[in-house]
Structures are given as C-alpha cells and as structure tokens.
C-alpha cells in the first residue's frame, strides 16, 4: 500500500504545469519583435499571439471544473499537458501569423484545463488552515518560469531561433505527464451533473467576441467597424447568458457565487489589478527593444528581475498576512505595487541600470504578494462542494482580465503613437501606456477596503483587534 503524497508534492507537480505555461508566455513576450520580423508584420500586431491564447483560456476554463468532476482530475490534468505540448510543437512550426494564432488557440485549450484543474486538486486536498502555505508552494516553481523566461528567450532569439521557444516545452510536458500519472490523485465527483452545453456556447461566444473585439480595437485603423460589432455581439451574448443562467440549476459560470462577499470583492479588485499584470509582460520587453534599442538577450536579462522579486516574496506571504490580515495587505500593498509599475513609465536609457533593477524587483515583489492574497481569500467563504465551479469562475475572469490588460496597453500605445504623429512607438508612448494601466489598477484599492477586517482569518491566522 503506497502512502498518499503530501500537499507539497502535489503542489509542486501542479506547479510544473504552471511553470511550463509561465515560461512559454514570458519567453514569447521577449521574442515578439523577432517573430514580427519573421512574419513581416508590425510588432504591435503581435499582441494577437498573446490574446489568442488568453481567448482560448477564457472560453474553455469554464468547462474545466465540470470535465474534471466527470472524467477525473488526473486524467484531465494529464491530457491537458499533452494538448499543451502538441500545441507548442505546432506553434514552433507556424510559417505565418494566422497559423501561429490557430496553434496558440489549441495550446490554450490545454492551458485552460491544466492550471484550474490543478488548483482544484489542491483546494480539495488541503484544509483551509494550510491553504496559504499550499498556495505559496504551488506558486514558487511556477514563478521560476518568469525568472528563467526573459533571459532564456533572449538567448534563444538572439543565438538560435524563436521557434525553439516552443520546442523546449516538449521535455517539460513529457515529465509533467509522467509525474501526474504517478502522484496526482484521481479526484472526481460521483454524482453526475448535466453539462451545461447551452451555457458553454453562450459564454464562449461572449468571451471570444469580447476578447477579439478588444484586441482588434487596440490596433485602430480599418478594423474599427468589425471590432465594434464583435464587442457589441459579445455584450449581447453575455446578457443572454446572464438571463439563461438564472433559470438552470448548474450553470457553467455560476453567478450566484458572487453572493459570497470575499469571493465577489476578490473577483472585482483582482480583475482591476490584473489589467496591469497582463500589460507589463507585453509592454516591458517591447519598451526595452524598441524604445531602448536593446537586443532580445539584453532585454531579457533586465526584465527577469521582476519575476525574481516575485520569488523572493513567497517566504514572506504567510507572515505578512498573519500580521496584517487580508484587507490591510490588499489595500496598501496594492498601492505600493502600482506605484512601482508606474515608475516604469519614467525609465530612460541614461538611467543607472541598478535603479531599473530595484524598481522591477520591488514591482515583482509587491505584485506577487497581491495575487497570492487575492487567490487565497477568494475561497475563504466558499463551501468546499462549490470549489469546482468557483475555481472555473475565478480563473475565467482572471484570464479575461489579463487579456484585457494587453488590449488596453496596446490601445494606449497605438493612440499615443497616432497623437504624437509618429510611425513607430517611441519611449513617450510606452510611458503613456504604463500610466494608463496603473491608473486603472489603482481603483482596486478602494474595492479591497470593503473587505471585512477578519476576512479569511481562518486561512491567514490573523485576528483583528
């Protein structure tokens, strides 16, 4: 009889999938200018390579919980890694931007099942009193991806070929499938619940129209009418879904979860904060390469520092939350993190390099603490039997807002270029984009202030005076 693996072992295996996904995204951001040159398109148009993946996540994540309940968490998790790996191979073989987008959509289907199903396994395996520690273990290896990604991506693009940024997922994916087969528990719900096919179609149409409409709108130019039609269509489909979801018992996106105060406020405030989180990996490498004139390799060495700061934070998350609680941490840490990101707007080539490193280090540190707190307090009041639907709901909005962050950043960048009468993005345009996204995310602080003083006390160990 084998001993069941501890939550740290399970968390680290799930984190290997997150590592692969994060590594892929951060390497891709560094490689965008080189890929644009290979496909003979504008670097600004390469944002579709990021948003197409996030679109696929937003469409298929709502189904992840129901699929895991029916077919078993281990089977779904393993199949998701396999699909992500196949999509990576096809991305490396893409000969033009449309083929890359299609391959990223396939890759995103795997990613949509990989991370939320892994998180669901952890939520169902760990008592709430250990959830902060478990989430920290889950996120540490996943943060190695952003640390390694920029310098590795810069090296690959400069000295080999951008195609190898996708091929390196193959050995990681194979290792992840083997570990999942050996250690991930096969958790499934014995009671069969009817899959919400109509809700899946309605939510998929709404989210895909919104994401692609916003992505096209961010480019400006001839696509204005089509982007407007897509956005309006997405809003109509979303409205129909809201009407429909109130009339069935098990909707694919359960809006009744918003009745839980901690879940509702974490979704709203976290969504505003993720506008910046989604935009920074897109803006920073472009700023370093197009604005500073650095090579992809040099750019990657600089931008990896923020992920290093995120890793350093993990040892402090539990003590900080125990001392200050979720509410105070989310309010004040949210302000500090956005101030650090806003300082990126002032970056110029004549700045001492160590100052840029310090700003990015603190930016990564505070942002990582913010998301650790959001990702944990969201489930403080949710009953365990609703973790599946809560995870699908929360992760869907998380990915949607990350995608929106790229669109907002690309739109601000494009408008600044047009207003400045320039043909290509310059440093002032990147400054405008950084300030726009951080202003939006600062609105999360007053929302977080609405949390009760003792919110998530069972998880953090904090006791409000």
From TrEMBL:
It is a multi-pass membrane protein. One of its GO terms (molecular function) is transmembrane transporter activity. It is found in: Membrane. The chain crosses the membrane at residues 46-68, 80-99, 105-122, 134-158, 164-185, 197-214, 226-244, 265-284, 290-312, 324-348, 354-379, 400-420, 432-451. The keyword Hydrolase does not apply. Residues 10-456 form the Major facilitator superfamily (MFS) profile domain. Keywords: Membrane, Transmembrane, Transmembrane helix. InterPro entries: MFS, MFS_dom, MFS_trans_sf. One of its GO terms (cellular component) is plasma membrane. This is MFS transporter.
């Amino acid at each position: 009889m084998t001993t069941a693996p501890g939550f740290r072992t399970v968390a680290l295996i799930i984190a290997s999938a997150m590592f692969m996904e994060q590594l892929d995204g951060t390497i891709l951001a560094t490689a965008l200018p080189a890929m644009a040159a290979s496909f003979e398109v504008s670097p600004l148009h390469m944002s579709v390579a990021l948003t197409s993946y996030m679109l696929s996540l937003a469409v298929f994540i709502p189904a992840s919980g129901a699929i895991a309940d029916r077919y078993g968490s281990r089977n779904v998790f393993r199949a998701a890694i396999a699909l992500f790996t196949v999509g990576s191979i096809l991305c490396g073989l893409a000969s033009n931007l449309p083929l890359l987008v299609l391959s990223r959509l396939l890759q995103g289907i795997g990613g949509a099942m990989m991370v939320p199903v892994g998180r669901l396994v952890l939520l169902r395996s760990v008592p709430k009193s250990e959830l902060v520690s478990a989430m920290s273990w889950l996120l540490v290896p996943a943060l190695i991806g952003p640390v390694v990604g920029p310098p590795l991506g810069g090296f690959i693009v400069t000295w080999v070929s951008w195609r190898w940024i996708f091929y390196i997922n193959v050995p990681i994916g194979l290792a992840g499938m083997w570990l999942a087969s050996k250690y991930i528990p096969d958790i499934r719900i014995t009671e069969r619940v009817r899959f919400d096919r109509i809700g899946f179609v309605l939510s998929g149409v709404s989210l895909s129209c919104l994401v692609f409409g916003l992505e096209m709108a961010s480019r400006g130019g001839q696509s204005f009418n089509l982007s407007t039609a897509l956005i309006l269509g997405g809003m109509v489909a979303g409205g129909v879904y809201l009407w429909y979801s109130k009339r069935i018992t098990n909707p694919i996106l359960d809006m009744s979860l918003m009745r839980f105060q901690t879940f509702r406020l974490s979704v709203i405030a976290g969504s505003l904060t993720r506008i910046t989180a989604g935009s920074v990996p897109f803006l920073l490498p472009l700023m370093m390469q197009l604005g500073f004139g650095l090579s992809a390799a040099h750019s990657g060495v600089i931008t990896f520092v923020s992920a290093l700061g995120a890793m350093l934070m993990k040892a402090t998350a539990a003590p900080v939350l125990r001392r200050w609680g979720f509410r105070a941490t989310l309010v004040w840490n949210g302000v500090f993190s956005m101030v650090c990101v806003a300082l990126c707007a002032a970056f110029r080539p004549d700045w001492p390099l160590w100052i840029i490193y310090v700003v990015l280090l603190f930016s990564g540190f505070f942002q990582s603490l913010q998301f650790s707190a959001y990702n944990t307090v969201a489930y403080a009041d949710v009953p365990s039997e609703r973790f599946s639907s809560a995870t699908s709901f929360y992760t869907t909005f998380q990915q949607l807002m990350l995608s929106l962050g790229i669109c907002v950043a690309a739109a601000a960048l494009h408008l600044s270029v047009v207003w400045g009468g320039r043909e290509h993005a310059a440093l002032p345009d990147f400054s405008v984009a950084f300030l726009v996204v951080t202003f939006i995310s600062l609105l999360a602080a007053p929302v977080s202030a609405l949390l009760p003083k003792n919110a998530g006390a069972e998880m953090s160990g904090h006791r409000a005076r």
